Amino acid sequence: MGTKAGDIIKGARAKPWRVLPLPGLFTLTLGHVALIMSILIGAALRLVGLGRNSFWTDELYVVWEGRQPLDVLFNPMLHVQHPPGYRLALHIWMGVGTAETWIRLLPALAGIALIPVAWALAKTLWPEHESAAGLAALFVATSPFLLHYSQDATNYSWTTIWVALSALLLINAWRKDRGWLWAAWAVSLAVTSYSYYYTIFPIMLEAGAAICVGLWGMRLKHEGAARRLLHAALAVVVALILYSPWAVVLMLNRDAIQSPLFPLYWDGYPVVWIPQLLVGFPNDIFWQSPWGLYLGWAIFLVGTGYLLLRITLRRTRGTMYALAVFLWGLASILGAYIAQRLTAPPPDVADWVRFAAFAAPALLLGIAALLAKLRPPFKVIAVGVWLLLAVVQWQGELAAPPRQDWRGVYSTLSAQAKHGDALLAFTAFHAGAAAAYYPLPVHFRTKSAAANL
Questions:
Q1: How far is CA 1 from the centre of its chain?
Q2: Cross-strand bridge partners of residue 293
């Protein structure tokens, strides 16, 4: 009797403490708990305050474009900088409602969906480090930069989820070599391409990685390498076929793609892009101060150097994956930066880090992989510093005045304007975009008012 009781106690002690069995459902681990908590936190941060501010100018342009009939929406001259994918999604979405909160809910849901995708990416790349997936989910959920664009009606949150999802699908398709996974990767490549032109940079990285891994595997005579390389090539062909209708439209409308090229030049903006992508674009508490820039670049450079050293000494697969993720983020940033500098004249170039928004998850994944290797006390300190920094950024975002309060402007006009008043056409182009969503009072459209303009 005593022996049997001892065996029971011994078996109970041997049971992993990280696992909580749920009969009839699934085995819930601490990793799943971390994912659920991150999704809840990320959803709360993204859904609260969606309608706090009125649409700003870029959002108004996107909403106006999304409200166009399909024949206009698929005209490349509607917006030469963006393909029609997100506009089409928004067009369908606005078939249900056109309130500010409802329209912003689409990018917010994309931002929420990015959390489990980042978790799955980290879990797939670094299964030997359980905390990497939880840290990746937490960083994406609490990222001030990603949070900001999850509450913005423009296409950057939508684009970011598709770039990350295509990377996840490629990894799983290569490992499992299932037809439906290759088909899903092909569709994700096409949707990504329809979302934003600059996604060509991560797409090229994915295709290049598949080719390099396939050729290396064939050289080492790995079983199935040639077959996987063929499947990857077929998936790319399918993606090109899906994108070909838009390519034909562009070729038939050459004015939409003809852009003068300007001499490539260097300015200081890339220096702040990595810190901005890590800690947030709208607030300058961190990335405009020297210590913030030094710290942001120190994290990136020390992390990259550490990974290179680890690869040189040990060549572990997880370390190579971490370095590849860092390079994914860096190449996406440099690609967007160079493309923007070649297509925009110097006086018009601004700090458009949002054009490289899809690089943010890669940077956060790389940092999660680095922190997962630390001892628990250092890991807790690093996460605490991150959360403290994120709270400071959120507070600045919530306390900041609206970027452009068109709702307030037109509400004031509607309340105080009198018959015959003239509207001063300051920034007339932007005011026209605002008037397409926030209508002018009726008496501004009278003949007497027009005569006074």
A1: 60
A2: none
Q: What is the DSSP letter of 401?
A: P
**CA distance readout (Å), 336 to 101, 152, 264, 304, 443:** 30, 20, 13, 21, 46
For residue 115, give Cα distances in angstroms to 154, 321, 364, 367: 19, 19, 11, 15
Could you identify the residue written with the tokens 């009125």? 54
pLDDT class of 414 with cuts at 50, 70, 90:
low
CA angle 74, 78, 84 (to 5 degrees): 40
8 Å CB contact between 365 and 136: yes
Distance CA 324, CA 400 (A): 37
Identify the pLDDT of residue 445. Answer: 44
Query: What is the C-alpha separation between 419 and 441, in angstroms, rounded?
Result: 10
Q: Which amino acid is at 266?
A: W
Q: What is the 3-state secondary structure (H, E, C) of 251-276?
A: HHCHHHHCCCCCCCCCCCHHHHHHHH
Asked if 303 contacts 370 with a C-beta cutoff of 8 angstroms, the reply is yes
CB 98 within 8 A of CB 439: no
Distance CA 335, CA 94 (A): 32
What is the average pLDDT across 436-445? 58
Start-to-end Cα distance in the chain: 100
pTM for this predicted structure: 0.85
